[in-house]
Design a protein that fits this description.
The complex is a heterodimer of chains A (about 300) and B (about 325).
Chain A: H1 2-40, H2 44-50, H3 62-70, H4 72-102, H5 111-123, H6 128-138, H7 145-150, H8 156-169, H9 172-180, H10 185-196, H11 198-213, H12 217-222, H13 231-247, H14 249-253, H15 257-262, H16 266-300
Helix pairs in contact in A: 1-16, 3-16, 4-8, 4-11, 8-11, 11-16, 13-16
Chain B: H1 4-9, H2 12-31, H3 41-64, H4 77-80, H5 87-94, H6 97-129, H7 133-144, H8 151-162, H9 168-175, H10 191-216, H11 220-228, H12 233-258, H13 265-270, H14 279-282, H15 285-295, H16 299-327
The chains are: A mainly alpha (about 300), B mainly alpha (about 325).
C-alpha cells in the first residue's frame, strides 16, 4: 500500500514535469501558425511599424479585403483545388481499391505478378526528367487540368495499405461463400468488399485529399494558364511576386516608388491568402484525426 | 523469390500458414494448368486502370532513363536522340556539384532521420505517461498540425520570421539593441541547423502520434506485472514500451534509408526561396535536377543525376531490408 502511494507521488511530479515540457512543444508547434493568422489581421501601417509581429499595433481586415479585390484569380484557384482534391480522390480510390482487391485474390494466377508490378514502383522510379518529358511531349498534359488530376492518382503505398485493410477486415470464407452462391468478382467487390472496408477507404481518401489539397509542385511544374493554377501554387507565386517587386530597385528609385512599395498590399494579402488556403484543412482535421492515425498504424504494422 | 510477395502484404503469421497451403495448391494447379479462366475476366478489368497508370507514369519514365546515356535533342525526343555512352556521367562527376549535392542530401537525411526519431520517441513516451488522457489528446492534435501544412505554406511562415524588412527575428534583434536588417536568406551559416529545425517541426508530431498509437496498443498486463515486481516508470518505459516500439522503428528506418538519396524538394527549394547564395548548403540532388530541367541546358546530364539517385536509392532499400531481415525477420518489408 505504501509502495503504491510512493509510485503515485513520483508520477504526480513527473506528470507535471512532462506536462510542462509537452506544453512548451505545443507552443513551438502552434506559435508560427498563429503568427500568420495574426499578421493576416494586421493593418499595413502596423506591418510598416512593427513588422510581422505577434502584437500588432493596429488590427484590420485589409488583407482579406484585398483578397476580394484580387477577385477571380482566387476563385479560380479555389475551384481548381477543390475539384482536383475531390474528383482526384474519388477516381484514385476507385482505381486503387480495385487493384488492391485483385492482389488479394490468392487463386488468381497473376496475383504475385501484379503485386510485384506495383511494389517495384516503390523501390525504383524514373524520376523527374523522364516523367516531365513524357508528360509534356508525348502525353501533351502540360497546362491541362488532367495533369493535376492524374499526377499521383495511384500511390503504391496506399494500395498496399488498402490491401492490408481488405485482408484484415474481410474473412476469406466470405469470398468463398459468395462465389459458391454464384456472385462474380464485380458483385463481390461492390456489394461485399466496399461496404465492409469503409474505414480503409475513408483513411486513404483523407490521405489523398490532403495530399492533393497541399500539392503545389505539380502546378508549379506544369501549369501556366492562370485559370488552372491551384491554390498552393498560387501561394508560392504570390510570395515570389512580392519578393520580386521589393527587390526590384527600379521601382523603388522612381518618385513615389518608395511610397508604392510601402503600401504594397502584398504583405498582409499574402498572409490572408495563406490563411484562406490552410483554414479548411486545419478546421477539419481534428475531426478526421482518428482515421489518419488508423491509417498510419495499419500502413506500418503487419497485423 | 516465391515467398517475397507475401511478405509485402503484411500479415506475417497468417501468411506463413497460407504460404504452405498455397505451395501445395500451386503444385496441383500447375499440373492441371489452365491459367486463363472465364470467371477471372472481371479481375483483369479491375486491375486494368491501375496497370495502365503504372505503365504510363511509372514504367515508361523508367524507360525514359535511357536519356542518361544520350545527347538529348529536343526535336528528336527521348527515343530518337543519339547515344553518347557514359559522357553524361563523366560530365556530372567531373564537376564538384555531384559531390556537394550527394553530401548535402545524405547528411541532411541522416540527421533528419535520427533526430526526428529520437524526439518523436521521447514525445510519445511522455504523452503516453501523461495522467490526463484528455490533455494528451489535445497535445496530440496540436503536434500533428504542421503535418497538414504544405511546404508552400511553411515557406511563408518562415518568411514571416526571417524577412529582412518586416521579419519578426530582425524586429526582436532591434529591440534588443542588436544590428537589425540582416538578410537571413544570404547567411549560409544559419541554414543547416534551421533546415533541421523546420523539418523536425513539420514531421515530428506525426511520427510521435504514430508511435503513440503503437504504445496505446500494448496490453496493460505487462505494466501491471512490472508494477507488482516494483519496476519504476522508467524501467517500464525501457523494458516494456521501447521493445514494443522496436518493430515500427525498424520499419520506419528501412523506409527512411531507402529514401536517403531522395531529398525533400519543398524544404530545400521553397523554404529557402531558391536563394542563390545559400546553394552550397541547400543544393540537394532533387533541387539540382529541378534546376537542370528548368534551364534545359543539359537534359542528358540531369537525367544521369536522376538515374544515379534512383539506382543508389534502390541499392540502399535492398541493403536496409536485408539488414533488418537478418536482425528481425518479421520486420522486413519483403
Amino acid at each position: 500500500m505504501k509502495k503504491k502511494r510512493q509510485l503515485n507521488r513520483i508520477n504526480w511530479k513527473w506528470n507535471l514535469f512532462f506536462g510542462i515540457i509537452l506544453g512548451i512543444f505545443a507552443i513551438v508547434f502552434v506559435a508560427p501558425v498563429l503568427l500568420i493568422v495574426i499578421v493576416s489581421f494586421s493593418s499595413t501601417n502596423s506591418i510598416n511599424e512593427v513588422g510581422y509581429n505577434f502584437f500588432p499595433v493596429e488590427w484590420s481586415m485589409e488583407g482579406y479585403y484585398y483578397t476580394f479585390k484580387m477577385g477571380s484569380q482566387l476563385v479560380y484557384s479555389y475551384l481548381v483545388t477543390i475539384v482536383n482534391s475531390a474528383l482526384g480522390t474519388v477516381l484514385g480510390l476507385i482505381v486503387m481499391s480495385m487493384y488492391a482487391y485483385v492482389i488479394c485474390q490468392k487463386r488468381f494466377w497473376l496475383e504475385r505478378g501484379l503485386t510485384w508490378f506495383l511494389f517495384f514502383t516503390m523501390l525504383f522510379g524514373g524520376g523527374l526528367v523522364p516523367s516531365y518529358i513524357l508528360n509534356v511531349r508525348y502525353y501533351h498534359l502540360k497546362d491541362t487540368f488532367w495533369i493535376l488530376l492524374l499526377a499521383g492518382i495511384l500511390n503504391a503505398y496506399w494500395v498496399i495499405i488498402l490491401r492490408t485493410f481488405i485482408k484484415t477486415s474481410i474473412p476469406e470464407a466470405l469470398f468463398d461463400s459468395a462465389r459458391i452462391d454464384g456472385a462474380g468478382h464485380f458483385t463481390i467487390f461492390f456489394r461485399i468488399v466496399c461496404p465492409l472496408f469503409k474505414a480503409g477507404l475513408g483513411t486513404i481518401g483523407l490521405f489523398s485529399f490532403v495530399a492533393r489539397w497541399n500539392d503545389w509542385f505539380t502546378g508549379m511544374l506544369y501549369i501556366e494558364n492562370n485559370k488552372l493554377v491551384p491554390l498552393q501554387t498560387l501561394l508560392t507565386q504570390l510570395q515570389n511576386n512580392v519578393d520580386y517587386l521589393k527587390a526590384n530597385s527600379r521601382i523603388a528609385s522612381t518618385p513615389g516608388g518608395m511610397e508604392m512599395l510601402k503600401n504594397l498590399p502584398g504583405t498582409n494579402l499574402r498572409m490572408a491568402c495563406t490563411v484562406l488556403a490552410v483554414a479548411p484543412l486545419l478546421f477539419a482535421y481534428p475531426f478526421f484525426q482518428r482515421y489518419f492515425v488508423q491509417g498510419l498504424t495499419v500502413g506500418s504494422i503487419k497485423e | 523469390m516465391e515467398n517475397l510477395s507475401f511478405q509485402v502484404s503484411g500479415s506475417a503469421d497468417l501468411d506463413k500458414k497460407e504460404r504452405m497451403e498455397d505451395g501445395v495448391k500451386k503444385q496441383k494447379q500447375k499440373s492441371m494448368t489452365r491459367r486463363f479462366k472465364r470467371e477471372d475476366i472481371p479481375l483483369y478489368l479491375m486491375a486494368l486502370p491501375g496497370v495502365v497508370i503504372l505503365i504510363l507514369f511509372s514504367y515508361l519514365p523508367m524507360g525514359g532513363l535511357v536519356l542518361a546515356f544520350k545527347k538529348y535533342n529536343v526535336q528528336k525526343g527521348i527515343f530518337g536522340s543519339p547515344f553518347n555512352g557514359f559522357d553524361n556521367f563523366k560530365f556530372l562527376f567531373a564537376t564538384s556539384d555531384a559531390l556537394v549535392i550527394t553530401r548535402n542530401t545524405v547528411l541532411y537525411n541522416i540527421v533528419f532521420i535520427f533526430l526526428n526519431m529520437a524526439i518523436a520517441v521521447v514525445l510519445s513516451l511522455m504523452l503516453s505517461s501523461l495522467g490526463s488522457k484528455k490533455t494528451a489528446k489535445t497535445f496530440q492534435t496540436i503536434y500533428m498540425m504542421p503535418y497538414f501544412l504544405s511546404w508552400a505554406v511553411v515557406a511563408i511562415i518562415v518568411t514571416a520570421f526571417l524577412e529582412r524588412s518586416n521579419g519578426f527575428v530582425n524586429y526582436v534583434l532591434q529591440l534588443l539593441g542588436q544590428e537589425g536588417g540582416i538578410d537571413w536568406y544570404q547567411r549560409t551559416s544559419i541554414w543547416p541547423p534551421l533546415l533541421v529545425f523546420i523539418n523536425a517541426w513539420k514531421g515530428v508530431g506525426y511520427q510521435a502520434v504514430m508511435y503513440l498509437a503503437v504504445i496505446s496498443g500494448i496490453s496493460s498486463d505487462y505494466y501491471e506485472a512490472a508494477m507488482l515486481d516494483g519496476a519504476s516508470r522508467f524501467q517500464q518505459a525501457i523494458y516494456i514500451t521501447i521493445p514494443h516500439l522496436r518493430f515500427i522503428i525498424a520499419v520506419s528506418l528501412i523506409m527512411a534509408m531507402g529514401g536517403i538519396f531522395r531529398g525533400d524538394f519543398g524544404l530545400f527549394y521553397t523554404v529557402t526561396k531558391d536563394s542563390g547564395p545559400l546553394y552550397p548548403v541547400t543544393n540537394i540532388i532533387d533541387t539540382y535536377i529541378y534546376r537542370g530541367l528548368k534551364s534545359q541546358v543539359n537534359i542528358g546530364m540531369t537525367t544521369a543525376a536522376g538515374l544515379f539517385q534512383s539506382a543508389v536509392g534502390f541499392v540502399f532499400v535492398l541493403l536496409a531490408n536485408r539488414i533488418v531481415s537478418k536482425v528481425d525477420p518479421d520486420s522486413a518489408m519483403f
